[in-house]
């Protein structure tokens, strides 16, 4: 039995968290939301105590004065970005012979639907369960990344010039969805869409 159980404290949930003591912050890392840019800037301008660990259990007591932040992204767009980077460009999911079939986006949507999205690879993980929503102070949005990360830097007293590269230029995310796949992803990531105020917006006709 853990000490937290013996004295009645809830056992902390594990997060992918980067921690610094000066300036004091906890960053909940969500994949595919400008994470590389954020990490590079923080690593260049601070002394990170926990640099890039996974499954960190921060004590319930403590860290109250730290600035807790995270970034999120439209779940429909985030999944398209994941598919481009982790299936078309690389074989991140080790699909092997299945990879050729997964080059069709609807097949990848079906593949993602097989997982428990609160206990899976961070690139397809539900964003809401990657963030301690009870403690987070600021949630930035990928869609306004430059402004929101500048706000984080101001609060931490860090330089606001972070050299963010423009997101990959591609068709609007909705072009990759038909009505069926848009509905599937909306159902799979309903909690993300609801908590962070995202919806599916159709721009143009679906790709054929």
Please, could you describe this protein's structure?
The chain is built from eight helices and five strands; from the N terminus they run αββαββαααβααα. The chain is an alpha/beta fold. It folds into two domains: 1-73 and 127-166, no CATH class; 75-122 and 171-208, no CATH class. The chain has a five-stranded mixed β-sheet, with helices on one face. A hairpin with a 2-residue loop joins strand 1 (17-21) and strand 2 (24-28). The longest helix is centred in the middle third of the chain and has 14 residues, at 75-88. It is globular and about 45 Å long. The relative contact order is 0.17.
Please give the largest β-sheet. Answer: 5 strands, mixed
Report helical residue fraction: 25-40%
Strand count: 5
End-to-end separation: 56 Å
SSE series: HEEHEEHHHEHHH
Structural class: alpha/beta
Lateral arrangement of strands in the main beta sheet? 3-1-2-4-5
Helix tally?
8
How many domains would you count in the coordinates? Answer: 2
**Principal-axes shape call:** globular
User: What Rg do the Cα atoms give?
Assistant: 18 Å
Strand content: 5-15%
Q: Name the poorly predicted regions.
A: 1-9
Q: What do the pLDDT scores average to?
A: 90
């Amino acid at each position: 039995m853990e000490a937290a159980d013996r004295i009645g404290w809830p056992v902390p949930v594990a997060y992918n968290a980067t921690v610094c003591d000066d300036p004091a912050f906890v960053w909940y890392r969500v994949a595919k939301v400008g994470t590389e840019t954020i990490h590079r800037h923080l690593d260049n301008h601070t002394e990170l105590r926990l640099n890039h660990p996974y499954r960190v259990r921060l004590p319930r007591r403590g860290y109250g004065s730290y600035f807790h932040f995270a970034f999120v992204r439209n779940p429909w767009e985030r999944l398209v970005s994941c598919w481009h980077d982790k299936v078309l460009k690389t074989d991140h999911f080790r699909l092997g012979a299945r990879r050729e079939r997964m080059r069709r986006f609807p097949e990848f949507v079906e593949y993602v639907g097989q997982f428990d999205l609160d206990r899976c690879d961070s690139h397809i993980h539900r964003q809401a369960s990657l963030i301690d929503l009870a403690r987070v102070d600021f949630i930035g949005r990928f869609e306004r990344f430059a402004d929101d990360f500048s706000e984080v830097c101001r609060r931490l007293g860090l330089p606001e010039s972070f050299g963010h590269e423009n997101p990959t230029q591609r068709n609007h995310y909705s072009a990759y969805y038909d009505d069926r796949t848009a509905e599937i992803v909306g159902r799979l990531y309903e909690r993300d869409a609801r908590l962070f105020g995202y919806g599916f917006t159709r721009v143009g006709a679906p790709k054929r």
